[in-house]
Amino acid sequence: MEAVKIIKNILDFGPAVFLPLIMFIVALFVRVKPGKALSAALTLGVAFTGMSLVISFMTSSIAPAGQAMVKNTGLTLTAIDVGWTPVSVIGWAWPYAALMFPLQLIVNLLMFYFGWTEILNIDMWNVWQKAFVGAAVMILTGSPLVAFVLCVIWIVLELKSGDYIKNQVRALTGIPGVTVTHPNMLAIIWMAPLNRLLESIPFLANLKTSPQELRNKLGFLAENHVLGFLLGILIGYAAGYSIKDILVLAIKAAASLTLFPMVAQLFMQALAPISDAASTYMRQRFPGRNFVIGLDWPILAGNPTIWTTCILNIPVILLCAVFIPGNITLPFGSILLTSFAMAATVVTQGDLVRTWLITAIATPMAFVASNWFAPLITQMALDTGAFTLPAGATQVAWLAHNAHFIRWSLLQISQVFVGKMMPGIIVLVVFIGVYRFYVKEMKRREKKALESTGLD
To answer: Which of 67-76, 161-170, 302-311, 359-368 is least confident?
Structure first.
């Protein structure tokens, strides 16, 4: 437990301090001059801080409007969506949580050495996700060994996910040599077949709605600040706000969508020199091999499709909360559902219509998953003493459950080890089938993205 406290104290500095520190060490290791390495690391810290400020600013503006829309329905829902922060405490409360750091590093280095991945995942900030998986498996099976096996599988899936989207991330961000290894990207495993289906519909296939294409078609109406202003008015009106509050919300939404791409430029400024140096260094030692740095998802946050989708999806969240039979989840901590929007933005390459459709389809799935996980998360919270139940709630839930389909699948597969064979085997067979299609589809999309960057 002492090791957990030490690691948690380090992580309490936040990604804006922890990740630049790791990046500074990586930069020195790949022979970047100390001054340049320090400047790049500090710029990365500024980028994370700036993006966090803008996200918090937008969330604190938009989320209350969405919650007001839910409150206006008069619903009484007993499982409160607490968001990711309290859930991460559950992960850190797991007795074996500290072992997730060396486990992730060892698996990563072994996979890179044998050529099974091109990624060095420095997103140690999200190692709590592995700890949460392990804690959940322990609850269901009582076996630390099974928990560690499932954690290794999760680590491998994250690394391979980063491999399968690296070119698409570059096409979206313009940043070379980086990818996203956040578990949110595992949602693309089931989104890829859905996106392929949407692309096969002639109307949607011919309807191009990336931010740049919208600007070409709609002119000033598709500019980030104008679009944010219009969306703010719609959400404020739906929330029953006064004219004054509607206009204040609209300006805040306009400011948020304007600032996101500005702050995102700092990631490119920070990461490009380190990425170039790291690629050169690794090519000298591993001839013919590529090298990619795995990072947290905020490097994608400059794309306005993500935030436009989140705002447009609030009415869908409200409808799901009201009309899904047996729903117990009250949207609160993760009402914007960014986890789905960011994954969908990658697989659609920023196409707004398809991103919103995929997110809208994912939303009822999120409620079903939230309701299913609520008893388990509540039990984990009570068993570990991680946090107490919010006032008026009998359970806690996590609506934006990162990669809920994958997490649920792994938990079902873990049941095989305690004698519940059939459900686990069925889920395993289905998962393997979906994953095989995903791999094939993502290789096709990676080739297409590589061609679009002009590097093929």
So the answer is: 67-76
CA gap 318, 65 in Å, rounded: 11
More confident residue, 172 or 267: 172
Q: Which residues have CB under 8 Å from 440's CB, separation 6+?
A: none
pLDDT score recorded for residue 151: 94
